[in-house]
Design goal:
The chain has about 210 residues and is α+β, with helices and mostly antiparallel strands. The chain is globular, with a radius of gyration of 18 Å.
């Protein structure tokens, strides 16, 4: 029995994942020039179990404010569909819906789902960064139409659902720039500022929705 316990404990340790953030280099040359010009000069690398998983480059400055009457948003002054960053996936892995994200380069645009009852239980917040293959996204302009942005993101997921990272406002008391920590049983969170707003981004996890 004791040997069985040790085997099970060892297996649990082997399957446990650990995520950390490290500095990364400049934005990739493959990005369209209008997009690359909006990004920070140095990115962030996310390491999983000691191996590089992704590299991310966020927008250096927030877009011109465009207030909305929509409620419960992390960044209510950011125009819908604004380019917020780019991400290079270095290892194939899954988003919180279990959708496969293939290795490659993607843009990240700000969005929030409509309050029409279709997304109840999907997440406690409405804010997301939607991924689109960088080869299909070359404009620095915002994509204001929600359905059009979803169609762009479906190219990243290859499913009827967009490929997204959840974001939410972080309490400044607990905020640590570029810090990664675990929340609950499965979620891993990256803290950083987007346009001066302390934000938590769910970089890995699972949702039962």
């Amino acid at each position: 029995m004791r040997n069985l316990f040790l085997i099970l404990a060892s297996a649990a340790l082997l399957t446990a994942e650990e995520y950390k953030a490290m500095p990364a280099g400049a934005p990739p040359a493959e990005l369209a020039a209008p997009i690359a010009g909006l990004l920070e000069k140095q990115g962030i690398q996310i390491v999983r179990d000691g191996k590089p998983l992704t590299e991310m480059w966020f927008r250096a400055e927030i877009p011109a404010p465009q207030p909305t009457t929509e409620g419960s948003l992390t960044m209510p002054n950011v125009p819908h569909g604004s380019l917020m960053g780019a991400i290079r996936i270095l290892q194939t892995y899954s988003d919180r819906r279990g959708q496969t994200i293939k290795a490659g380069l993607y843009t990240m645009r700000y969005s929030y789902y409509p309050e029409n009852g279709d997304h109840q239980g999907a997440a406690p917040q409405r804010d997301f960064l939607l991924l689109t293959p960088a080869g299909d996204d070359s404009s620095a302009n915002a994509v204001s139409d929600f359905k059009a942005l979803v169609e762009m993101s479906k190219k990243a997921s290859g499913t009827p659902h967009p490929c997204v990272f959840s974001i939410r406002k972080e309490d400044p008391k607990f905020f640590k720039e570029n810090h990664v920590e675990k929340e609950g049983e499965a979620d891993w969170l990256l803290m950083r500022k987007l346009g001066g707003v302390p934000v938590t981004m769910v970089i890995a996890g699972k949702v039962e929705a």
